[in-house]
Structure formats: C-alpha cells, structure tokens
Amino acid sequence: MLKIVQDEQIIRRCQRQFVKSFRPFADDKIPVSLGHPGASMKARVLWSGRLGIWFLSRKTEEGRYWNAFGTVQPKRDATIPITCEINFPVRGVDRRMGGALARDLAGRIFVVHRGKLGGSRKGVGKSLFADHYRGVWEMMEEGDAETPVAVIGALQSPRLVRQVTQFIRKVDRIKVMASARSPQMEMPFHQIEFRETLVGERYCDIEKDKGAECDHGLVVGDLSESLRRQGFKVGNDDFHDLFITNARKEITTVFQVRTFGSPASVVSSRIRLPSFSLAEVSCGMGRHTSRAARPTRAVRMPLTAPSPKRADSLPSSPLPTTCCSRLSDSASPPVTARWPSTMRARRNVASVEGLPP
Fold first, then answer.
1. Residue 3: pLDDT over 60
2. Per-residue model confidence (pLDDT) at position 249
3. Domain segments of the chain: what residues?
4. CATH architecture group of domain 187-301
5. 31-40, 99-108, 299-308, range with greatest mean pLDDT
6. What pLDDT was estimated at residue 53?
7. Strands of 251-258's sheet, edge to edge?
8. Which of 65-79, 261-275, 277-291 is modeled with the greatest confidence?
9. Nearest 10 degrees: CA dihedral of 205, 208, 214, 218?
10. Local confidence band at 340 (pLDDT 50, 70, 90 cut-offs)
C-alpha cells in the first residue's frame, strides 16, 4: 500500500523535479488560450514533438501546483482544450485534486492519480476513469481513508516522462470513447490493431512491484512498434498483451509481458495460451531481458522423454543388462559365458595356444 505525501517541503521538491524532467523534451513555447471560448485563460505552453503532448506548470493562488497537459499540437493564439491535469496540493491532503504524491514501504515516491478527469463534457469523470482505465492500480492511505489510485510512475525513474505521456494518451482515448455515439464506434472488432488503452490491469495486485509494473506498458508499446516496423501485423485485446496475425487474420504468435520472472508466472502464461507460439518477455527495474520459443510440430521434435504410458511400464520391464558367470567349478578362464538377461545365452570359448579351438 502507498501512503500520501503531505510534507510541504517534500512536495515542493518533488514538484520541481517533476517539471524539470519535462524541460529537455520541449521544442517550442507557444502562446495559447486554455479552456473553451466561454471560459479561457492566456498561457504559454511547452510543446514536445517527440512526446506528442504539450504541458504547462505553475503554482496557483488557491494553494496547488497546477500541471496541465494536452495532446493537440497548439497553434499560436488558438484556444486549445486541456486533456488532463496532474495537480499536487502545496501541503496536506486535498481529495478534490486528481493528482497526488505517494510513498511506498521502500521509500520510493510515485506520481498517482485518483481518476478525477474534469472537463465540461457530460459523463466525463471519476466513474468513467474507473470503468475504462487499464494500467497500474494501488490502494493509497490518505489520512483516515484508503483510496484506489492509478500509479503513473516513480518520480526517480528515468522513464517518468514516457510514463506520464502514456497516461495522458490513455486519458485522451477514454474521453474520446465517452463521446462516441455508440459502443460499436469505440472498437471495431473486425479491425486488428494495437490499442494502448488495453495495456495494464483494472485491479490492484499487492504482490507486484509497482515500479516495474509502470514499465509494463512501455515495454509492450515498444515491442509493438518494433514488430510493426519489421512488417508484422500486430494487435492486442483484453486477454493478450500483444499478438501477431497472418494474412487471414489468424493469430500466429502471442506475447505475454511479465514484470517478474517467477516459475508460476511463466507456467500461467503457457497454460493460458496453449495453441499459439508463445513469447515471454520479462521486464524489471533495470535491464530488460526476453526469451522466446517458436514451437514446431511434435513429429519433428526428437523424443527426449517417454510417454506417460511407456514410463509406467518401465519398472515392470527393466533394461537389458550384461553379466558374467563361470560355467562350472572345473572351468577356468578364459572360458566364460556372457549373455544379456533378456536375450538367449551364448557361449564364447577363446582359443588357447596348443589346444584345438
């Protein structure tokens, strides 16, 4: 479980680090109007072409650190909407804000979000976020209450900016889905493609490392892009992190990304995907490794173990052995008899100098 950070000095330091991590990605500073024509404010936002988002940060008079993000490339003096806000209180606990800073038992500080999206559109709010967001979930202790929150990323992670960008894109997609006129418009089932909104979980898993789990979506996304560039047709759904299809839209290879490499996790992946080529990718806090297996037809594989029926019959029919016995007390070497216990005995008499064979 996470615990919310309330100390004013720690929050101020974290806010500075949060904003500082985005500055190297800024390409331009553009004057715009934020909001909508009826209620807007002048501001200068930082646009990043590499990330595909704009961001703005300032401290407000109401006592909060305001961090606004958007996915539309702004034009000078144009009015642009805000996709998402990740705001922090100056001190203490403020449940009216979506964003917060929380610490785990190891002392790591994470950027989290309660799911309060805001906006002027009907139906866009916390319940929509809870129903559709897939990512990393965890319980956060804030005063006398425990709240489920979406864990965006660790503040000290070098991939925090990418994790925040991925979160912003997911929120944007959720808002677009909410404005769709029918469920059929949200997801065309005949179209196979990779959907970032399907990556992650919808529940809290207390046994998984949250820092590594925040990298899960990045690994899946990078793998998808790499395969697409090589000419593969990739997609995903509610049950598979990633898969490859052939020209007939049949799944040929499935990728399951695991943030911990326990044997139970690997076996679980294989049991769930018995009829496809299975590729398992392990990711953690540091180096990312992968291992993949391409199955072939059973008749082409060498036999390395007996079948269960054959294994049961082995104790009742021991393997052949070779033994040596002296024929009689009067016999002397090299006159001996050798035979496998399961074969007919035969007598081998060696020739001796001076005697007939």
1. yes
2. 84
3. 1-158, 187-301
4. 3-Layer(aba) Sandwich (3.40)
5. 99-108
6. 96
7. 233-235, 242-245, 251-258, 277-282, 289-292
8. 65-79
9. -110
10. very low
Q: Tell me the whole-structure pTM to 2 decimals.
A: 0.69
- Mean pLDDT of all residues in 235-254: 86
